[in-house]
Amino acid sequence: DGASTQPRCAGRRRFEGDMRAAGERIVRPLLDMAKAKWAWMAKDVHGGSGGSPYVRSEVLGHVRGIVLDRPSSRNAVDLAMVRAIADMLHDWESNVHVEAVLVRGEGGKAFCAGGDVKKVAEAARKGDPSVGEDFFRGIYSLVYQIAHYEKPYMSLLDGVVMGGGGGISMHGPVRIATENAIFAMPEATIGFFPDVGASFFLQELPGLLGRYLALTGTTIKGKQLLHAGIATHYIPSNKVPSFLEFLHSFRLKAGLPPKDALFQALDRFRSEESEVLRAGMDVQHLLELVNKHFVHSTVERIMEDLRKGYEAARKEEEAQWYKETLEKLNNNSPLSLKVILRQFQEGHKIIQSAQQPRSALIDCLRMECRMMQRFMNQEDFLIGVQSVLVEKKEKPMWKYQSLDQVTDDLVDSFFRPMPGDRELCGLVHPMEGDGQRVYPMAKL
Fold first, then answer.
1. What crossing angle do the helices spanning 273-293 and 299-312 adopt, rounded to 10°?
2. Catalytic site residue 404?
3. N or C: which end of the chain has fewer CB within 10 A?
4. Statement: residue 427 has pLDDT above 70
């Protein structure tokens, strides 16, 4: 028995030795890869350096998710959240295991309702505009980072998308709306202006729709986002879980541009064409009215033309649109209205004269940086935030009560260069060439 046992033991030892060697060759690299991945995943959970408890990451196969997790504030972002998003994007851009990024909001009601301007206004009211200036510089830099991002960047617009939420989504090539999506740039209602690159991306919408949205703060909903150029895709919310599950197995295809690979994959989740076409007809009718009346070079002429349209309207539906549009303009800050119209005129000049889309974006952001710093010192911004966001009033008591109180010289002052470093806003000109892909807001 002893003689027969020895060969068996030797054979078993050889077998175990072979298995250990195989483990070293096969399993060890996988373990090392997992440890490497775990290190940066652990960092992402805390938002990286300067992290935020309101931003977390998720792993969806070779796709990485950024989840805005502040539902009590409709996922409004503050500076810590902005920095956490920027850190994650920076880490993932050089990670070979990451092929795309998806940004979404937690809570089921909002993607992102904008920036935390209540905090900004509170600090400004106490004589400290630096809180607002730091926040806006941070989010403008994030916008530029997103526009430059070399991996497919997706946004899932399932709920409210306002202000800064537009900046976090509109500069990416894939923007997926559900029927719950509600898009608006309502800054004129609080005595501010549409920023985060809106001087650029709102100009890319059909006709004069961007100008109309900026001046009135009107909302675009659901399937309408697709026809308005705000979304690139539409998915019913009941298909979102299967879409997220699908991302676990998604891989880019060799020889196919990343954006095209994503577009092909998203086609399987599209809704019935008839539903989308009905929404398209609504947007087309809106565009006809907007292009007719918002073409004028002054706010006064726009409003005068709208009043004439209201008086001549034969259909009840159109009369109601004229009435509501005039009410919105009358409630909004007269200072904001005049500055915003000039913002669109200047933004159009920048885009027309730019050699490449990215230089147009950075020049628009620099213009917005000047405007932002001037608005930080305007009483109407503080009045608007306090009245609308804190006290929930519909019409604030603006310092400038009427359009004729807002002089051309006052409007001009918002666009004059800032002294020293305040002019740069932390942004630099892009290098020559346009990277791997054209700026995503090109017509898709």
1. 110
2. no
3. N
4. no
